[in-house]
Amino acid sequence: MNIKSKDYKRYADAAAKKSPCAKNCAAAFLVGGLICTIAGALTDIYSYLGANTENAGIYSTVTLIFLAALLTGVGVFDDIAKFAGAGTLVPITGFANAVVSPAIDTKSEGWIFGVGANIFKIAGPVILYGTFSGAIYGVIYYFCTVI
User: Fold this and answer.
1) Distance between CA 32 and CA 134 in Å, rounded?
2) 38-76 b/e with 16+ CB inside 10 Å = b?
3) How far is CA 96 from CA 2, 3, 36, 60, in A?
4) Which of 2, 53, 78, 98 is the most exposed place for a label (fewest CB within 10 A)?
5) 136: exposed, middle or buried (Cβ count in 10 Å: 0-12, 13-18, 19+)
6) DSSP single-letter state for residue 85
7) Which of these, 102, 36, 107, 96, lies nearest to 66 by C-alpha position?
């Protein structure tokens, strides 16, 4: 069967499910805002319990990472992500999910060749390019402040 690209595009556009943009944006905004609100509340709770401001922020971050990993492990995070879309990509929770998901998916292949080899499959590029661009920015910043 020989289909021209214009005909295929027309066919694909007709068959594709239309995305409810306003609903998706509202869900992402609400869930992302809720995650950030929880982070703020955790910081306030840790401050109230006696931690200084810097440590309260660290404790809050660690708690969010733990909760995102736990919710990923029990399969709840995926349901939240299906509803909220990009709203769950708040950096800490999204990164925790990106590390835990491949580890869970490949656990049956063993600890070394499954979990160990695949745990950073999704998050690895983020770490690599984040570190690389941070180093480049540091060099540029250094030369801009020296000159």
Assistant:
1) 25
2) bbeebbeebbeeebeeeebbebbeebbbebbbebbeeee
3) 45, 43, 15, 14
4) 2
5) exposed
6) G
7) 96
Q: Count the Cβ atoms, other than its own, within 10 Å of residue 80.
A: 20
Q: Under a CB-based contact definition with an 8 Å cutoff, are residues 81 and 88 in contact?
A: yes
pLDDT at 1: 57
Selected residue with higher pLDDT from 115 and 50: 50
Direct distance between the N- and C-terminal alpha carbons of the chain, in angstroms, rounded to an integer:
65
In angstroms, the Cα distances linking 8 to 3, 15, 18, 43, 110 are: 6, 10, 17, 53, 43
Q: Render pLDDT for 84-139 as a digit per residue (tens, 0 to 9).
A: 988 898 878 988 888 888 888 888 888 888 888 888 888 888 888 889 999 999 99
How much is the pTM?
0.72
Structure tokens at 47: 């401050």
Q: Report the C-alpha gap between 3 and 15 in whole angstroms.
A: 16
Overall average pLDDT of the 52-60 stretch: 95
Greater model confidence, 66 or 7: 66
| Beta strand spans in 25-119 (E) | none
